[in-house]
Amino acid sequence: MKLFRKIYLEVFLGMFALAVSLLAFSAWEVKRQGLDEARRYGVERVERNVREIREKNAEEKITVLESHVRDIIISSEFQEHFGSMAVLWKNGEEVRNLSPYFLDRDLLDEMRKKSRLPETEAFVGGPFAEGGRRLLVFYKKESDFGAGDEYSFAVFQDVTEIYERTKKLVLYGAGVSGGLLISIGFLLYRLLYRLFLPLEKLKSGAADIAEGKYGGRIPVWRKDEIGDVTSSFNCMAEKVERHVEALREVNEKQKQLLGSLAHEMKTPLTAIIGNADLLLTVQLKEEQEEKALSYILDESRRLSRLSEKMLELTGLYENGGMGAVMKEMELGVLFRRLEASAAFRLKEKNISLKTKVQTEGLSRVMDVDLMESLLLNLVDNACKASGVGGNILVSADEQGVYVQDFGQGIPKEEIERVTEAFYMVDKARGRSAGGCGLGLALCSQIARIHGAGLFIESREKEGTKVSVLWGAEGKGDGQQERESF
């Protein structure tokens, strides 16, 4: 059962119980007040009639009359004042009873004793059910009516009307309460339905997200707790969508990387297999064997570098730089580490590396290992593009870090693609130099992690300048328009 229906049933049953309780209390109170009023009126009537009979008998001095004459007079006056719904006893014997009911005087005496009333007060019993009627009995044990004899009497008072009035009140109240409950129940159901409608939409939205539909949002038209929950849900859905989209992009990039990696590995593996097969099946001269072994060694080293860079680039794509350890580092210290790391590579081609920091003590917050890897890749690319005895300039200022060579340069139409994984401008020259086309892709990702952009300026036969500009994330990885560099 839905939550709003459970709440509706609980509230409706509570209102129903309250209505029944109020109706029952009202009926009981009306009946009680009616019976109390009837008892009070009956007692007053009994006392008033007894007083009037006594006063009349005193005026007529019936005590001087014969006993049987007094009895006739008392009986006549008793009927005149109390009507036919009364019973009269004299000295314990019934002398008049015109009512359709029988009363046991001894039982009335017992009931009177239990009530502990004074002898002179009238006892009220009931109401009793007799012949489909409800009756109150007013019993007076001692009264001489001014005649000098001991009389007792009981008077019946019909209170059936009080019960009928109470019954009508219950029926009327039940009808009114039923109508109100139906009306209020309908309005309450609609109110709860509208109140919980956003929760149904939240449920539907959650189901859509579970099915992979991340674009849906739930409109917020209420400014209460449910509205806050809806806003939070939309925020969560947006973040989930962004996260899934990022994962999708990473997955797509990894697929491309793996596909490109498989393609790039074919050439060196084919060369390695071919030369190894040649060594095993053909009798070669010593010079040819050395050449084949050297080729196998070079291609194996190339595969090793390819796997290392592939692992590093894949790791950066997967965690988006979450594992980067940022700390402040002086750029001058970073450049000294770069010179030490690149010394062997520079010595192979007798290339001179010059470093320059525009402002002494200039520092940036960075992951030192990643930034050193970026600069090493850029210097390595500069070495491949430079001839023997060439120069490479690495500099830094407040805006960024720059690596410039004066070698082959890059054709203008190729600059936009050089940061793609495995893309090489001159594949033959790149492979011969031990390249794999991952260097600039790796540099671009490291720059993004540091909130920077990678910009490339190049002219054929004049050289290339790669700029890592701080605060230019998302704007790099392409050609930077400048007149000179």
Essential attributes:
six-stranded mixed β-sheet, Helix Hairpins, five-stranded antiparallel β-sheet, Heat Shock Protein 90, Beta-Lactamase, 3 domains, alpha+beta, rod-shaped, 10 helices, 58% helix, 13 strands, single chain, 485 residues, disordered C terminus
Please, could you describe this protein's structure?
This protein has 485 residues and is of the alpha+beta class. The model is unreliable at 427-437 and 479-485 (pLDDT under 50). Helix content is 58%, strand content 17%. The chain has helices at residues 3-60, 67-82, 105-115, 160-210, 225-281, 286-319, 331-348, 368-385, 427-432, 439-449, and strands at residues 86-90, 93-97, 123-130, 133-143, 151-158, 327-330, 352-357, 363-366, 391-396, 400-405, 452-459, 463-470, 478-479. 24% of the residues are buried. The protein has three domains: 3-168, Beta-Lactamase, CATH 3.30.450; 238-320, Helix Hairpins (Orthogonal Bundle); 327-485, Heat Shock Protein 90, CATH 3.30.565.10. A hairpin with a 3-residue loop joins strand 9 (391-396) and strand 10 (400-405). The longest helix has 58 residues, at 3-60. Helix 1 runs antiparallel to helix 4 (160-210), helix 7 (331-348) packs parallel to helix 8 and helix 8 packs antiparallel against helix 10.
